[in-house]
Amino acid sequence: MIPYGRQDIRDEDIEAVVEVLRSDYLTQGPCVPRFEHSVCEIVGAAHGVAVSSATAALHVACAALGLGPGGLLWTSPVTFVASANCARYCGADVDFVDIDPRSFDLCADALEAKLVAAERSGRLPDIVVPVHLCGQSCDMRRIHALAQRFGFRIVEDASHAIGGRYDGEPIGSGRFSDVTVFSFHPVKIVTTGEGGMAVTNDGELAARMARLRTHGITRDADLMERPCEGPWYYEQLELGFNYRLTDLQAALGCTQLERLGEYVARREALADRYDELLAPFPVRTPWRDPAGRSAWHLYVVRIPCDGDVPRRVVFERMREAGIGVNVHYIPVHTQPYYAAMGFRPEQFPEAMAYYAEAISLPLHPTLSHDEQDRVVAELARALSR
pLDDT of 50-74, one tens digit each? Predict the structure, then answer.
């Protein structure tokens, strides 16, 4: 089986983890702040808060921004469920904004139209979570302008996008958002096993996210409500969580980050090659935004619904041939949990049109040209009647 994604673990990664195993710290030692600093240097952000997953990063970002019961978060329906679930963890409501049919990202036109209507009805979102699907940035300049106009905060879900660029800057610089979230799951661009990070240019926001990841506890005497009783003393100021990243994971992340540029370049080269090889095929290959550079977490093609062979048949034929294609993602608003809230498939037609046609082809740094040729050959067979 050729998987759609996989990690690349080298000797230097193993050595870094073994070094931590032989040290005095397995969790919350010196590797965690080193990893945070390295990510911030790469993306151009002032502060990083490493946590146990991107889901945890989304949660602490929303909580730190004050989202709670009575609040409202909007996101894309074409994403992993975590982009919406983070609001529910805070007790807030969720709504969705349809996608751009070219980029598959949250559509800025649809967002503006929905905001205008929401302003009339008297309930605007507190937070919007644009999702950089596949590694390509949303139209953040426009979304930021809408935030200034309508007064919402922005948390970029860049789980797919570390190493990507937008408008001349690294994704994560914070130029157009309050917080950016990255994922370090094994199939992502770089990995810590499980893990995530929230980056921001707001020091107070970073401090609160860091406190929330550790049970809401502080050891800062200036923040305590009672006099400090001694060097052992701490106070829980709010209800937080155990979302800490370990030093083992951070050590792996540090060595992986050293190859971030190499990984993105390899993914981009493979995407270029797919574009060329698939040009004669009756499929729609990814559109590339000239304002940015995708990190190419995923390479998604669309199998036209009016084509000779249905997407499901193509998918099943590819899997039977040992090609680990996948579908990213089932629209969140159709999941039973959200359907029970009243969401209907037809509310977001572009998301449903995308879902009916999308297949993710294998794309990862260790994918060889021979393997890629096999993927393309099997896709050709799968598309034949």
Answer: 999 999 999 999 999 999 999 999 9
Give the residue carrying structure tokens 């929401």: 118
Residue with tokens 């952000």: 45
CB-based contact 106:100 (threshold 8 Å): yes
d(CA 7, CA 191): 7
CA–CA dist 306, 123 (Å, integer) = 39
155 Ramachandran zone, left/alpha/beta (phi>0; psi -120 to 50): beta
% residues pLDDT > 70 (the chain): 100
- Reference 82, options 196, 179, 3; nearest CA is 196
| Nearest CA-CA partner of 20 in 6, 8, 35 | 35
pLDDT band for position 385 (cuts 50, 70, 90): confident
pLDDT digits (tens, 9 = 90+) for 194-217: 999 999 999 999 999 999 999 999
Contact 48, 266 (CB under 8 A): no
* Cut 0.85: pTM above it: yes
CA distances from 60 to 63, 155, 209 (A): 5, 11, 5
Asked if residues 153 and 127 have their Cβ atoms less than 8 Å apart, the reply is: yes
Structure tokens of 324? Answer: 């680990």
